[in-house]
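job 3f2a | input accepted
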Amino acid sequence: MQQVLLVTGGSRGIGAATAQLAAQKGWAVAVNYATNSLAADEVVRSVRAAGGSAMAVQAQVEDEAQVIAMFDKVTAKWGQITGLVNNAGVVDMTARLDEMSVARWKRMFDINVIGSLLCAREAVRRMSTRHGGLGGSIVNLSSAAARLGSPGQYLDYAASKGAIDSMTLGLAKEVAAEGIRVNAVRPGLIETELHASGGLPNRVQELAHQVPIQRGGSALEVAQAIVWLLSEEASYTTMSFLDVSGGR
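job 3f2a | predicted structure (248 res):
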């Protein structure tokens, strides 16, 4: 049976690396994007050029109607979805809590938390044996920030990823007997475009000395952890957190 994977935020960084690696492992991959269709199309092209199956699908993950339509498009093309990577997320400019606005918090929690909950809900509705599904695997993208708190930089982002940790724990227990495994990966300092969107394009290089391994990580190194958790090699692994953070 064809394994079908949806990767949210799959047009760049960790999401793109995950989509490409999963396709190499035999998954048919739906590459979700919010606005950058050119980047998503490039990921799809690279997968197809390597002999894999991929499609790009647009949706703002915080929009319920768009998320439902996205899942319907994927199932219409390939049938049952058996994997979800909740990767879509945002940071904002570095700031202290007393400098942040409510609008900033609402945007971040809408995308990082509500978006992940929405996508997980739709995945469960389709994967769960309770609903006639075939089972599957969900991997949530948390962050080492959930443990570290990101004081003076991204406290609100860290809080949103703490919510992802709690969601992972609860959902894993909720659907374990319905054929669905739920785990999370916590990346540390990883070389992606995310840091530039927070106003610190050189953040990884500047903080690498704080990492016991003494360097930042790559998107591929995170993708390898994600794809393992998705796979049957992790068939007895659920409610687990895999830190890919160089010891930080």
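job 3f2a | The CA atoms of residues 116 and 174 lie 16 Å apart.
job 3f2a | closed
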